[in-house]
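INFO batch 0412 | record 1 of 1 | parsing
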Amino acid sequence: MDIKEKEILGKGIKFYIQEDGKEIARGHLYILKNDLHQEPFGFMEDVFVDESKRGQGLGLKIVKNMVAKAKELGCYKLICTSRNSRQKVHEFYKKIGFKEHGKEFRIDF
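INFO prediction complete | emitting tokens
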């Protein structure tokens, strides 16, 4: 049996906040499809707030905008990952409605 390939295109949207021309907060939302659902799903990646700007609600603002966009685009779910050591980040995500679900596995190249 041969393995076949079929390209599936996705969409990426960067959300960011600038101050004095410098990016101080960002996040990327990727809209993807699979064969399990008609609707797409969202993948949230690289949510970041400059260390000097943390605690001001910028991360919350970015994430809320990504959640709203995923809903607007008809996603059936929105997923994100976080390193095991980032307990504050985990609490942040739980506080705004995300739930732990599964485990992330990775291969670095």
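INFO post-check: The radius of gyration is 16 Å.
INFO record closed
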